[in-house]
Amino acid sequence: MASRRRMLLKVIILGDSGVGKTSLMNQYVNKKFSNQYKATIGADFLTKEVQIDDRLFTLQIWDTAGQERFQSLGVAFYRGADCCVLCYDVNVMKSFDHLNNWREEFLIQASPSDPENFPFVVLGNKIDVDGGNSRVVSEKKARAWCASKGNIPYFETSAKEGFNVEAAFECIAKNALKNEPEEEIYMPDTIDVAGGGRQARSAAGCEC
């Protein structure tokens, strides 16, 4: 019974307006890129089937608006997230400086049960711009920030060229999976007359 359950992994992408959140999602799911910029209104999502350790999951990727006037929509979209992706533009220092605000805002709005260990992944996007000559945020600086926040995985990407996008989302999916409560993933719905099954289930729940 449990193996037939549809496993949904919810991922939220956060970051300033214009850093490439929509483009990254479209490149990963549809292998498409558009030069025409259109701001996301509120939030949108795409889904993709992914295989992790010989099992299929549905990755539900939420792309949220970077404009402040839409941030009040946050609570509804953040709740139930299994992983949060923080995205910035390596050519815009302000977008990097705002990562901490996005991270804090997410933890407040989503209220994860274990905020200290909630999985984040950071993407430094648009490394293709001007052959890399326009970048103002060094890889070293970004990795140092990630290390200071509990060793958050870090990827440098180009949504336009598709560079590192697949690898980044593979990491994102695996981190999302780690965040799912174990009993929901593989504990079978067995009938245990001695009640041992129930004890095992509640014990597993205590770890969350």
How does this structure look, described?
One of its GO terms (cellular component) is endomembrane system. Its main location: membrane. It is a lipid-anchor. Belongs to the small GTPase superfamily. Rab family. One of its GO terms (molecular function) is GTP binding. This protein has 208 residues and is an alpha/beta fold. The longest helix is centred in the last third of the chain and has 15 residues, at 165-179. The chain starts with 7 loop residues before the first strand and ends with a helix. The chain has one domain (2-206): Rossmann fold. 35% of the residues lie in helices and 21% in strands. It has a 6-stranded mixed sheet with strand order 2-3-1-4-5-6, with helices on both faces. It is globular. The chain has helices at 21-30, 74-78, 93-97, 99-110, 139-148, 165-179, 182-186, 196-206, and strands at residues 8-14, 43-52, 55-64, 83-89, 120-125, 154-156.
